[in-house]
Design a protein that fits this description.
There is one protein chain. The protein is of the alpha+beta class. It has one domain: Cytidine Deaminase, domain 2, CATH 3.40.140. The protein is built from three helices and seven strands. Strands 2-1-5-6-7 form a five-stranded mixed beta sheet. It has a two-stranded antiparallel ribbon with strand order 3-4. Helix 2 runs parallel beside helix 3. It starts with 8 loop residues before the first helix and ends with a strand. The mean pLDDT is about 95.
Length: about 120
């Protein structure tokens, strides 16, 4: 994605939601996904002794548990340089290989947009 290309308002929204989840819960990552009907699911990192999920895995699980049939887009706010393979796989499982995964810095700046595939 070109830095000069404007970000779609709906994509900006899921980045903002992901950023808010990260800050509100004081966790390593925040994520949000948008399903085929436009509903959004927001989550933070889960780091329990018995359960460890990235923010994006948690957001996808929330979408599945709520009955989402597919995903239009996903966003993760993190200090990591790239979306992990397991995060992209979770998005791909529900959204397909062409679903965009937006990677943003903690300040909300878009760093990259990659496909889930």
């Amino acid at each position: 994605m070109s830095e000069a290309a404007p970000l779609d308002p709906e994509d900006r929204k899921i980045i903002t939601l992901a950023r808010s989840a990260r800050a509100r819960n004081a966790v390593a990552e925040g994520a949000a996904v948008r399903d085929e009907t436009g509903r959004t699911y927001v989550a933070g990192t889960v780091d329990l002794d018995s359960l460890k999920l990235s923010a994006l895995q948690t957001a996808v699980a929330m979408a599945v548990a709520s009955g989402a049939q597919s995903l239009e887009a996903a966003a993760v706010v993190t200090e990591a340089a790239a979306a992990s393979d397991t995060d992209r796989a979770a998005v791909r499982d529900l959204g397909g290989p062409d679903t965009p995964v937006l990677l943003a810095a903690p300040d909300g700046t878009l760093r990259a947009s990659v496909s889930a595939g």
